[in-house]
Specification:
This protein is an all-alpha fold and 293 residues long. It has one domain (78-286): MetI-like (MetI-like fold, Orthogonal Bundle), CATH 1.10.3720. It has 13 helices and no strands. It has helices at residues 6-22, 37-40, 43-62, 73-86, 88-120, 122-135, 144-151, 155-179, 183-191, 196-207, 209-234, 243-252, 256-286. The longest helix has 33 residues, at 88-120. It is globular and about 70 Å long.
Length: 293
Amino acid sequence: MVAPHPSGAAGAEPAARAERLERPEVGRRVPGPRPDLWARLPLGKVAVVALLLAAWEVLPAALHANPLLFPRATTVLRVWVRGIESGEILTYAERSLAVLVLGMALGVVGAFLLAVLALFTRAGRDFLDVMTSMFNPLPAIALFPLALLWFGLGIKSLLFVLIHATIWPMALSVFTGFATVPRTLVLVGRNFGLRGWPLAAAIYFPAALPAIVTGLRIAWAFAWRTLIAAELVFGVIGGQGGLGWYIYLKRYYLETPAVFAGLATIVLIGLLVEHGIFRTIEERTVRRWGMSL
């Protein structure tokens, strides 16, 4: 037997060492660039808000604006804090949100029913296509006079326009998500004996989650704007008013800082819903499961 040449082993060892250095071990964390602090913390957004508030504070004095028409940011902040402490703003906001949640819930349920019917039947697809083409471009606030004729000055009128503002964009987004589900996943579900509603619940809903979240975002924005506009234009609904009615009253009594405080409350609620609810849903579902949105 011929022994291996020592020079060959000596030459192979540096090559193997170099290969190990070039290819890291599987499962071993490769150190990368440290994430930028600006990217990890919302410093950019905070800076934008701070600049806007600073400009708001300075502009009225620089333009010599009438405080009755354009109050300073600090004045609005004091009025807003007083409204929060007294519970006035919170009461109006609670009324608006209660109606909004109920109207959105009814609209979302109807949207899912329409999307599932469109998924499994040709008649459902035709119905959804025609209805969304007709009613999705129609502003919900335009139907409010008709709702008043049908349901009177009450909560039913608001729910009618909120359902209209929610159901069509939501149904369109859900059905679009269903249409993009990979055929392989559907075949796997059918191999397990799933048909109809069980197939939609087990396969289509989880796979279409990014589109569903997008639809909820759109429906929330439409419904929130519709509710505030209805309260502003038509006033008290059912003996109680929301944030739109609060703004209308303060405008009527020329309490301009309170008007800005009501507007700021609407914006803050929008930010809380976007970053506190929808972003949390994304982090715990869509991004955690590795799905793109």
